[in-house]
Amino acid sequence: MPATLAAVSPAPESIVEAVTAALGDKAKRVDLKLGEVTIIVTPQNYLEACRILRDAPGCQFEQLLDLCGVDYSEYKMGDWDGPRYAVVSHLLSVSLNQRVRVRVFCSDDDLPAVDSLTALWTGANWFEREAFDLFGIIFEGHSDLRRILTDYGFIGHPFRKDFPVSGHVEMIYDAEKKRVIYQPVTIEPREITPRIIREEKYGGLQ
Question: 67 is in which domain, residue-wise?
Answer without folding.
Answer: 12-151
